[in-house]
Amino acid sequence: MSNIIITVYYKNINSLTIxxxxxxxxxxxxxxxxxxxxxxxxxxxxxxxxxxxxLVDDIILEKLRKMYSEKFEMPYKEISNKIDDFRAKRITSYxxxxxxxxxxxxxxxxxxxxxxxxxxxxxxxxxxxNSIIKKEFxxxxxxxxxxxxxxxxxxxxxxxxxxxxxxxxxxxxxNYSENKILPKKYNDGHAALRGFSQxxxxxxxxxxxxxxxxxxxxxxxxxxxxxxxxxxxLKKKIVLxxx
Length: 243
Known about the structure:
Elements: E1 4-12, E2 15-22, H1 41-44, E3 51-54, H2 58-71, H3 86-111, H4 119-125, H5 132-141, H6 147-157, E4 163-168, E5 176-177, E6 180-181, H7 188-197, E7 204-209, H8 214-219, E8 236-240
Helix pairs in contact: 2-3, 3-7
C-alpha cells in the first residue's frame, strides 16, 4: 500500500490537528553521507520520489551550484566565504536552484504527453502495481481518450517528489571572524537551518539527526515556514530521525 504520513501539530493548547497525506511511493531516498544524495532531486523528483539532501558541507554545495548553473544556463554569482552569513546564503541559493530545476523537469514531464515521449510511462513504471494513481490511469486508458485527457489527468494526479534536507544536530560548531567568536546563530547547524528556512522549498521536510541539540531546536521557532498557515498547511515540516 502507499505510504501514509501522519502529521500532528497544535494550533493552540485546545486544538489538535491531525492531517493524513498519502504518499505517491512506498519508499524514499534517505540522506547518504555528505554528498551521495546531494543532487538526487534532479534525478528522481520528477517521478514523484522523495529524497534528502545533506546540508553539512556548504563548500560542495557552492561548487555544485556553479556546475549546475552552467549546465542549465542559469545565472550564477559566487558566494565567497568573505561575505557575511555565507554558509546560510550558499545553502539557500543551492536549494533554490535545485528546486527551480526540479520543478522545470516535472512540468516538462507533464507537458510531454503532447509529444512522442515515454516520460509519463516512466513515471508510472516506478509506481507499485497497487498504486491508486496507476490504477486510475489504467481505467482512463481503457476508455477512448485524447492527448488533452491525458494532459489534464497528469496535471490533476501526478505530484513531484519532495526535496527534503538533513541537518546533523551535533554538527553545530562555533565560528570565528578575526579571532572573535561569532553569535550562536552563525554556528554551523544554525546557519544550515536558516539557509533551509529562507529557501523557496515548499512541502519540504527538515530531517534532524545525530542526537539532541536543544539550542538548535529552540531556533526553529523563529521561522514562519514551520508554522501552519490559515489553511492549516505547512510549507516546511520537521522530522526527527532516531537510530
